[in-house]
Amino acid sequence: MQADVQQQNVRTFIDPALKGPLDQLPPELSLITKASVLEARATVHTMLKFPDTPGVTVEKKQISTSEGNVPVFIYRPENSPAITPAILWIHGGGFIMGRADSNDFAGEFAKKLNATVISVEYRLAPEHPFPAGHNDVYAAFLWMVEHAQKLGIDPDRIAVGGDSAGAGMAAGMVLHNRDAKGPAIALQLLIYPMLDNLHNTPSGSIEDYPVWNRQTSFNAWEMYLGGKNPGTSASPYAAPARAKDVSGLPKTFMTIGTVDLFRDEVVDYAQRLMAAGVPTELAVFPGMYHGSQVFVPDAPVSQKMRNAYLSALKDALYKK
């Protein structure tokens, strides 16, 4: 009975200030399958044409890796100091959509934090399943560190972050970097991260979430994981919730809305980090659905979420 009530009422918990865009979402995004992913991707890429950020320059580069070239977009504040902190940014899109130059986060980070932001155009599933995108992201991080002087960034002040699937990829990359005893990371910033290929939680059992529903999520996971879902045997670098050991990770900031499929997996991962001694801050915002602070940036709760993750980045990149 309780599950039925939750299924029926989940959308009634949405903050009224955030409801407007939900009636205007394209129907092709209501359920994304392998057969429809190209249509959905084209629709989303059209939607992601955010305006340029005044006072921020954008430069495209190609990183040469053992698996081919990886494009990156470098966002820099104009008239910045010779050396800035940096953020490796990993865009969202369920592993199957999205683009590195969407500028829904990168320009704001560069301007408000006076930081260099490097956004990675990683390979997308299903054409390129895990570990393709993961390898692109980690190669970009190592390239940032290796070329820090030429890029004008401080290698001791690099944050790694993303939103949605990009945040899940960030978490997986940070686990990989820990295991590889790689360079120091000042902060992992996980904005409503996609962490768990099983969705075996109370929030994950509900079907009818706006923007990103349960069946679409399972379909995306299967595309990312190579056409099948290996369950608990999935690599933790792909599905960080599968990690048995989360100790030794960098300082972490996580945020999620209460009306989000990922809510409980995010809370669970944060609790595991805390129990392992990782300095962790978790911010949960009432009435927010997946990506709502991007859809309705002026809503009071959207501003609260944005201010929270901007503050976390500022603290990690500037406080010694």
Give a short summary of the structure.
The protein is built from ten helices and eight strands. It has 320 residues and is an alpha/beta fold. The chain has a single domain, classed as 3-Layer(aba) Sandwich (Rossmann fold).
Oligomeric composition of the shown chains = single chain
* Tally of strands: 8
**CATH homologous superfamily placement:** Alpha/Beta hydrolase fold, catalytic domain
* CATH architecture type: 3-Layer(aba) Sandwich
**In order across it, which strands form the biggest sheet?**
1-2-4-3-5-6-7-8
- Please tell me what the overall shape is: globular
How many helices?
10
How much of the polypeptide forms β-strand, as a percent range? 15-25%
Distance between the termini: 52 Å
Helix content: 25-40%
Summed over residues and divided by their number, the pLDDT gives a mean of: 95
**CATH class, please?**
Alpha Beta
Q: What low-confidence regions span 5 or more consecutive residues with pLDDT below 50?
A: 1-6
Question: What structural class do the secondary elements suggest?
Answer: alpha/beta
Question: How much is the radius of gyration in Å?
Answer: 18 Å
Give the CATH topology.
Rossmann fold
- Biggest sheet features: 8 strands, mixed
